[in-house]
Structure formats: structure tokens, C-alpha cells
Amino acid sequence: MFELSWPWLLLLLPLPLLFKSSAVAAGRTLKLKPLMQVAGQSQRNPSRWRQAGTWLAGLIWLALVLAAAEPRWYGEPVEIPQQARDIMVVLDLSGSMEIEDMQWQGRPINRIQAVQLLTKEFLQRRQGDRVGLILFADAAYQLTPLTLDLTTVQTMLDEIVVGMAGRRTAIGEGIGLAVKRFNELESSNKVIVFLSDGASNTGNIGPEESLQLAKAAGVRIHTVGIGAEEMVQQGLFGPRVVNPSHDLDEPLLIRMAEETGGAYFRARNMQEFERMYQLLDELEPIERETLSYRPQRSLVHWPLAVALLLSLWLAALQIRWQELLYANR
């Protein structure tokens, strides 16, 4: 859309008309009479030359006033989602995450594959949030920083494999690193989504210490206990039912959530896993407010270029008048 930054300057357009009478009179007494005589001797129409000069001067004035009014072209509004929350997904990548006790579309999948599938769907709904990804096993590693580029987070989530951070479970390391990253940034709404299937058995910082750090930093932790409670396993004497989640430290996960104002979820299967993320969306509602801006482009150079070209034309016309004047003396 075309707009003028200073449209009131267009009121200057009729300004030359205020001086028309005096200018015309002066022109007739000083210039037009001899020039008309010269033009008559050269068998030219003096009114045509005079009208051409007047029109050129008027167009130059119009172009200059238009440039002063600063014309701009505004594009369609572009919406930018407001940052709502900083969410750090802290994911257990210990060896037990390879256990195939989940079902997806009729086939067994392991726990890490379940996390990848449903966490990507969760991320697609979190437009406007900054999301980061931390992996922990023997130690904790930040895979992606907090970012609005959720596509990159989803891509990196697809690349993780069990064992890339070790085989054990350092719960305190994962929480501690997430809190450290939050403290390095200015954030008023800090959330950890903590997913684990075991109990802490290694690490330089324990779960209790990291929990106190999270509480001091005002970080809210939602914890998720992953893994089925029953699984048929083939043994030496035939199939038997086992509990693949016997190592899950559920009391710790519950306390971490309660003491930080979060919630604890149990994901025994894909249905509970999916329901967990839906409830999480309700607990951490997605902000839909957006900022918008309209891209703009200045058009000042166009009327200025027109004024310059017309000025050159008028100058050439005046030179031609002078040539006619001296040629006919």
C-alpha cells in the first residue's frame, strides 16, 4: 500500500500560484517580449515554448514536494509470535531407553523412539516458545540451546541414539545443566520437561542438590516416568511376565514435580504418553499473542529522479532559447 509520511506537505503544491501574477508580469517586461520577437523572426510559436517551460517547472515542483512528503510502499503485515515460555526438554539417554515396551501402529518400538515421535508432535504446538534439548546418561550434554527454531530442535531430536552420552543415569547432571542454562539467560517463565525411565546412579551432582538449585532459580519441573509395568519376555523355560520399569525412581520424580510447582506423569504406553503432552499443553498454555510489522520501502528516490531529469530538460530548453536569441540578433 502506498502512503506518505508527511502528507500535509502536499498543501505546498499551490504555492507557486501565489506568485503567478508578479512572475508573469516580470517575465513579459523583461524576457518574453524580446524572446517573442526573436521567435517571430525565426518563425516559431513563442507560446509553445513558454507553455513547455511552465509545465516543466510545475512538474519539477510537484516531484520535489512529493519527495519531501516521503512516499513509502508498505507490504502485507507479517506476524511474529511473542515468546511465551522457555522450555528445556531434559531426556534420559541411558541404556534402558532401548527397551522395546511401547507399541506404535501395531509394532513394538523402544522408549527413545516413543519419545522422538511424540515429543516432535508436542514441539509443533509450541510456536512462540523457546525450546532447548539436553541429553543425560553418564553426564549431561546440551544438544540444542533455547531457540525459537523448533524445526531444528525436531531435526536434532531425530538424530539421537541411545549410548551417545553413556549408559548410566545422572539425573542430577541433567537438571543441573538445565538450571545453569536458564541462569545464563533472562527468562521469567522457565520450564523443564524431564523424561526418565530409571534411578540416578552416577554424576558429580546428585538429584537433591540439583532440585534445590531449580527451586532457587524459580524453575518449574514437569517429570515423566517412562516405561511399561508389564512385558512378556522369552526366557529359558518359556515366556514370562516381567516389570521393565522396576528401576524407575518414581518417588523422586513425584517430589521433583511437587516441590517446583510442576506435575508428574506416568507414561506406560503411547496413549498415556500422548495424553501427558496434551495435559502439559493445558498446564503450560500456548501464548497466541503476536507482534506484527509491515515491511516498508522508501520511494523517495523516484520523485527525486523525475525532478532531476525534468530539471535537465528545462535547462536544455533554456539553453536553446539563448541560442535562438543570439542567432537572431
Question: How many discrete domains?
Answer: 2
Trace the largest sheet across and list its strands: 8-7-4-9-10-13
Record field, number of beta strands? 15
Averaged pLDDT: 84
CATH H level, superfamily name of the largest domain: von Willebrand factor, type A domain
The CATH architecture of the largest domain can be given as: 3-Layer(aba) Sandwich
* Rg over CA atoms: 38 Å
The low-pLDDT segments are 27-43
As for the CATH topology of the largest domain, it is Rossmann fold
H and E string:
EHHEEEEEHEEHHEHEEEHEHEEH
Number of helices: 9
Backbone shape:
rod-shaped
What is the CATH first-level class name of the largest domain?
Alpha Beta
Which strand-content bin applies to the residues?
15-25%
Alpha-carbon distance between the termini?
55 Å
Major beta-sheet overview? 6 strands, mixed
Q: Fraction of residues in helices? A: 40-55%
Structural class: alpha/beta
Keywords: Membrane, Transmembrane, Transmembrane helix
InterPro entries: UPF0353/GerABKA_families, VWF_A, vWFA_dom_sf
Domain VWFA: 86-283
Transmembrane segments: 299-319
